[in-house]
Amino acid sequence: MISEGSTRICCLWWGGAVGYKKPLPAACEHSRPPALKREIIMKPLSLCMLLFASVLATSLEAADKGPADERPPQVKTLQPGVTLSLVAEQPQLATPTGVDVDEQGRIWVVATHTHFRPDDYVGPEHDEILVFSDLNQAGRAQKRQVFYNATDATMDLELGPDGWVYLAERDRILRIKDTNGDGKADVEENIAVLESEADYPHNGLEGLAWDNAGKLIFAIGENFAKEWTLTGTDGTKITGAGKGGIFRCTADGKQLKRIAEGFWNPFGICVRKDGEIFAAENDPGERPPCRVLHIVEGGDYGYERGYGSEAHHPFVAWNGELRGTLPMIHPSGEAPCGIAPLGRGLLVPSWGDHSVDFYPLTPKGASYTSKPMTIVKGGRYFRPSCIAADPKNNQKVMTWYLCDWVDGRYQAHGYGRVWKLEIDLGKADWVGPLELEPPTKEAKLAADLRSGHATQSLKELLKLAQNEDPFVARAALVAMSHKASEWTPTEVMKWSPAERVQAVLALKLAQAEPKTWIPVLLKDKNADVQFETIRWISDAGLKAFLPDVEKVLAQSDLDYQRFEAAIAAWNTLNGKALDGVRNPEMLLARVKDKQSAPQIRAYALRMLPTQSRSAPKEGKQVVTQFPKGLTLEMLEELLAVNDELLSLEAVRTLAGNPIASQKILAQLAADPKQDAVLRAEAIAGLAPLAEQQAGLLLKLAGDPKRVVREETLRGLRSIQLTDKQKAKLKEIADEFPDSKDAFQAALHPGALKTDRPALTETGAWLKAIDAVGGPADVESGRRLFHHARLTNCAHCHRHSGRGNVVGPDLSSLGDRQDRAWLLRSILEPSREMAPEYQPRTIVLTDGRTFTGIRLRSYVKETIRDAHGQNKTFDRDDVEAIVESPVSFMPQGLVHALTDRELRDLIAFLESNSRPQAQKTD
């Protein structure tokens, strides 16, 4: 018999809506589902039904038929060897949040009646722990019994040793037991108790599993960033706030320990038979996608709810973007609630995508990567959540049981199903080998480093902490933290810059004395050391260092990354952490402060939230709006300061609203006394109004300053020129042979599509741009990146604090140092599209279509469109949701650019806004 270890875990969701037409025998009326309408239909309980509900075990076939034909699941299997059969459904169970299977084949289910319980809900006062058994030939359960019904907000169930049944309520882990053999639990014991003012049902305690040493694993969600204290039975206490965590304790609640942190809502956890732990991250908030994670001791997975809900924060990572944080294995479907091992892979139900997916795991250094496949797909009323393996699985057919939430509403709604998922291994060649691969050398190294018995020297650990494998680097950091108490500031300041950066991370992890270290580290000349020290201050909430953070904000050599970090820390230390970096009043005050250094005022201006979050009217271009308090007059005052950086930021802000700003932009563009780069920036800002400004642009096409001239020609390229205008340009072109390609592109933009390599010929394109004479112009590339007509890159991408967050932030793209890969991504944007950025097209019942990155799915669908705007649709108005194989990034973008412009754009993307620590030795 093949054992899959602790193969189950629970459910909860952030998804969309679903149903089933075939009626099922009813066991009890008390959880009757709503009918066709959205509202719960009130059904009076008869005395007969009340008595019936108290019966321990019942024959399901003999019960009345319930109205189960309103929510068709529309399920189909997509891979060979997969079958799905119904075990039980409403009204025998409702809104299930946990499942497990015992050695007798009995299926244990949590049916919650308290999860956002509507006022008119008809059902038991508390949640039920149900046991289904005696499956007939069709797979339908013939018996249903209520084992327990005294808990609320019950989020998971896990069968334990000695007849104990473990439950996760929102605010405690408990176990219950039947000691007299009557089929009802009569003993209840707390295992871990959570104290917090938060009471939201499914971001507290959750996710039960057993490790291979017989210890209980469980999780906590982000708890709305409210402070919490978790207490085990031996008095061990662990505290936290905005970081979800995963914990371990003995079966009786002793030796409580935090394993890992940095989660939003790790609702599903499983432990493989080799001891590896995996989790399904249930919700990404404004940071799609949800995550499939490899959990390791001491791991930090980057998320911190306490920093607010914005899609960007300098101290929050979602895929290992920050030093010391760990990436996901792969994005999951929307709202995964369970996870279970299968051979060398993982089964993950997706509540929001109405699917069950298989993630074959391929070793990647000390962790894994995956290319998932969907094995089961349902319709709107199929919402698989929890999953548990039959402990009697054999080498021919393997069995799991799935819970199905059915309806997309969060409120208790009376619907629910249990499915039996079978995989015939003789037919399912897609499963691959069942035996697990031996650990890689990197995995062995990381495990040794995490063990607490690492033999590497400090010098070796410092090097390993900079390893390209984030799991090796994190493990080395954990090992270093055990030695941090031996260090002195004098010693550490002699280390290389890269080593000092790692020292900050290790000291923070070791909870070193802040007063000893932080004043010294903040004086470090290395930008990365300062950044990580500011991050330490903010993460730890060290309010005593607020004056030090304010001193950082006054530094004359401050770069944007440290300014943004210091603003975030300032907000945190002033009790405004949820503002993230968006504190408009404080930022506006910085902009207005004439005593502040111009560059600080420039950074504050850049960080002001200028874009409206409401979607633009159909067919209209997004135009950013000035934040409250920022006026044209104020921006003119900033220009009058005559500081290069401040003026550029002012012009870029003006360019965000060109209709309101066109007079100022036109004056700047036409003024030969202004700096040429500033004039070029103003001209780029006028690009959306090129038709109205054609007269000015034709005049500036002959400007003696090359940067002004060529930016003007880009603007003219985007409009239809008259014959007279073309003749004028041809006349001017003869005077400036160094701008020949720019004039040709303005006169004949269609020619940029001819006599050039195919988009698949990256090597030929590389040769073409390498053949361009002269040095690359990074600032020209920057303007191209933000150009409203030619590229529109900033509509989807953020760079150095400007742009949108539809696609990935490209600020540190140059770290990859792979020009061929970068160029290929521009030439063929849909070729290697990261799953988390795959667009989905929503087709409405009225025929309209909208495309965006999916954010949330429940009774409403929310996407973020190509302009960075969130759009929400009622699920009843949605006809279909289709994954798009086409990237938001337009195919053929290079056909709008000359070879020189393409070279400049790549040079900009390859440039770093600040040097990385590894490069500062």
Report on the architecture of this protein.
By secondary structure, this protein is α+β, with helices and mostly antiparallel strands. Among the domains are: 29-431, Neuraminidase; 839-886, SH3 type barrels (Roll). The chain is built from 24 helices and 37 strands. Strands 2, 23, 24, 25, 26 and 27 form a six-stranded antiparallel sheet that branches. α16 runs parallel beside α18 (706-717). The longest helix is centred in the middle third of the chain and has 14 residues, at 527-540. It is globular. The model is unreliable at 1-68 and 913-921 (pLDDT under 50).
Keywords:
single chain, 921 residues, alpha+beta, Neuraminidase, SH3 type barrels, six-stranded antiparallel β-sheet, 26% helix, 22% strand, disordered C terminus
CATH class categorisation of the domain at 29-431: Mainly Beta
User: Which bin fits the share of residues in helices?
Assistant: 25-40%
CATH fold type of the domain at 29-431: Neuraminidase
Name of the CATH architecture of the domain at 29-431: 6 Propeller
Mean pLDDT across residues: 88
Shape: globular
Q: What is the CATH homology-level superfamily of the domain at 29-431?
A: TolB, C-terminal domain
Q: How far apart are the termini?
A: 56 Å
Task: Count the beta strands.
Answer: 37
Regions with pLDDT < 50 over 5+ consecutive residues?
A: 1-68, 913-921
- Going by helix content, strand content and strand pairing, the class is alpha+beta
- Please, how many helices? 24
Percent in strands: 15-25%
Rg (CA only)? 30 Å
How would you characterize the largest beta sheet? 6 strands, antiparallel
Domain Cytochrome c: 776-913
GO molecular function, one term: heme binding
Protein name: Cytochrome c
Organism: Gimesia panareensis
